[in-house]
Amino acid sequence: MEFRYLGNSGLKISEITYGNWLTHGSQVENDVATKCVQAALDAGISTFDTADVYANTKAETVLGDALKGERRESLEIFTKVYWPTGPGGKNDTGLSRKHIMESINGSLQRLQTDYVDLYQAHRYDTETPLEETMTAFADVVRQGKALYIGVSEWTADQIREGVKLAKELNIQLISSQPQYSMLWRVIEDEVVPTSKELGVSQIVWSPIAQGVLTGKYQPGQKPPEGSRAADEKGGADMIKRFMNDDVLTRVQKLKPIADEAGLSMAQLAVAWVLQNDNVAAALVGASRPEQVAENVKAAGVKLEDTQLKAIDEALGDIVERDPGKTKETSPQSRVA
């Protein structure tokens, strides 16, 4: 395993970070989830990312149980706040002071820890003054409940304003968690340059494009039974933007590139995002322990310029690059 600094801070995290978005507490049984976490630890992963909204708080509980007994100082545990939790009442969502203060306490209890290493704004809250949000985050840090602050799916302008307020409040906003993959490169033109300037790193989710970049989805064929694209409860809606024959045909052209590099297509996809020097970590999930062991093989891989060029040529114009997609795919008002 390789380790990278997160933003302009002294915190090092594993460049393959374990995330439990669509699996723990929902898709897989708790004993399997625990085995996946143990496989991550065995592979040298020290960084674990979750959120209170995943499986409506159950994912945090599963992760807390799975990490019980591990040396806390050797781990980096990340979670997030924004989306509705509990019964979804009027104050059970967003980035108000009330919701942040109540959410961090709930997350710590479920994760069975006194603090998280990184507390992230899971989306931008258009209905709460940013000053209120950042002041609440600052108080969470000063209370020792979080060490650093991050954001997820914020635009470049939102990140800039957040970092400015964080500095005024003497706390460190050091990370951005966007979707990023060979197929989805919307952060490259604005978010990445702004983040580099401000000392913010990316922790990217969906580096395998919800499984599309594994090559298991064939053009003109139904998704395999049990796959994410076939599961209406487990992410089929998220993956559908890639599930067309144009995309799937282009993705198949990546196989010889992966073969030449001695990688699986999934490993190639994870290694590709890690070539970006503003990316501190790629988030990978798993429904089976062996998936963790396979994904970790992308750590430390250096792709040649010729291979990167071949990837661009294979995918051509199906790649989404519009920076406006960050705002477009984020909520424009609070979801209650």
Q: Can you offer a commentary on this structure?
A:
The structure is a single chain. The chain has 336 residues and is an alpha/beta fold. The chain has a single domain, classed as NADP-dependent oxidoreductase domain (TIM Barrel), CATH 3.20.20.100. It contains 13 helices and 10 strands. An 8-stranded parallel beta barrel has the order 3-4-5-6-7-8-9-10, surrounded by 6 helices. The protein has a two-stranded antiparallel sheet with strand order 1-2. Helix 4 (130-142) crosses helix 5 (156-168). The longest helix has 15 residues, at 97-111. Residues 314-336 are annotated as: Disordered. Residues 15-314 form the NADP-dependent oxidoreductase domain. This is Aldo/keto reductase family protein. InterPro entries: AKR, K_chnl_volt-dep_bsu_KCNAB-rel, NAD(P)_OxRdtase_dom_sf, NADP_OxRdtase_dom.
Task: Report a brief summary of the structure.
With 336 residues, this protein is α/β, with parallel strands linked by helices. 37% of the residues lie in helices and 13% in strands.
